[in-house]
Amino acid sequence: MAVVEELLRSEEDGTISFGNHVLENKAKLEDFEHCGDLYKVKTYKTMTKLERNGMFVYESVPGTSVLHFTETADGISFEVEGDEDAQITLELEEDTEYEVFITGQSIGKMKTNLGGKLNISVELAGAGEVSVKIVK
Q1: What is the pLDDT of residues 61-93, one digit of tens each?
Q2: Lowest CB count within 10 Å: 20, 37, 40, 120, which one?
């Protein structure tokens, strides 16, 4: 299982990993510096949430463990693991169309709302780590 015991960490490849989907009680880590930004994570069995500089970035229900999370001008990519299928909300550019790939397969194009939120469902139960890539 790929939980992030320290709740949030910088990886050697410049990405971050966060979340611990097996925690029974809420845990959080604030003011974690990575590449000049301050991150905050709240995580446990039923929810994982990430903020950067006080702004929403990622949320999953139920909780997930996220590895190698990276954002570029063209989108987001990460590996995600959880005990149950998850509803994941991401903050992207508002009113913009993105193509969503799960384990390398396109599940189609989706458009963010006026607030820039994109909601996806990922089947995680028994799947181990699942790769997610969202491209503008």
Answers
A1: 999 999 999 999 999 999 999 999 999 999 999
A2: 37
